[in-house]
Amino acid sequence: MGSPKAPVQLVVYASASCPHCAHWWTTELPQVRKTFIDTGKVRLVFREFLTPPEAFAAAGFILSRRIPGKYFEVLTTVFQKQADIYRTEQLYEGLAAIGKQYGLTDEQFKATMSDAAALKAVNERNAKAIDDGVESTPTFYVNGAPIVGDIGFAALSKAFATAAKG
């Protein structure tokens, strides 16, 4: 997300099933995006990571990839609806409703959820994250340096400024 030529790169490892990730994505990212990403100062590189319930996280990522050109839009919807989906305990049905919102028929959603190649790809991306040393979500790196602790807008702004200076 953002310009490949941006001087600062924010790498975010997150899980579609992680409430902390959903909170950051829906509360902090909009301001980060408006101030830094959309202005060409920062490029966000998103990396998928599976946390419990892993099947829900994987399904959320597979669904997000299924809608052409709308990965981040669908993922945002998953994060926005995550708490309600958990409250109802209807994980599959909650994702099916999101699929329907983006134009998938019931048959298309079922095919998406049973796509063995897509599941293998998610698991491979997760294994790569584990190999990279990621242990929890959300995990952040700014120009390769880990951000530990506060990941709010002010802390990220400071990290971006430091990274931009070299």
Task: Explain the overall architecture.
- It is a single chain.
- By secondary structure, this protein is of the alpha+beta class.
- It has one domain (8-165): Glutaredoxin, CATH 3.40.30.
- 59% of the residues lie in helices and 13% in strands.
- The protein contains 7 helices and 4 strands, in the order βαβαααααββα.
- It has a 4-stranded mixed sheet with strand order 2-1-3-4.
- A hairpin with a 2-residue loop joins β3 (139-142) and β4.
- α1 runs antiparallel to α3 (71-88), α2 runs parallel beside α4 (91-101) and α3 runs antiparallel to α4 (91-101).
- The longest helix is centred in the N-terminal third of the chain and has 19 residues, at 19-37.
- The radius of gyration is 16 Å and the shape is globular.
- This is DsbA family protein.
- InterPro entries: Thioredoxin-like_fold, Thioredoxin-like_sf.
- Belongs to the thioredoxin family. DsbA subfamily.
- Residues 1-159 form the Thioredoxin-like fold domain.
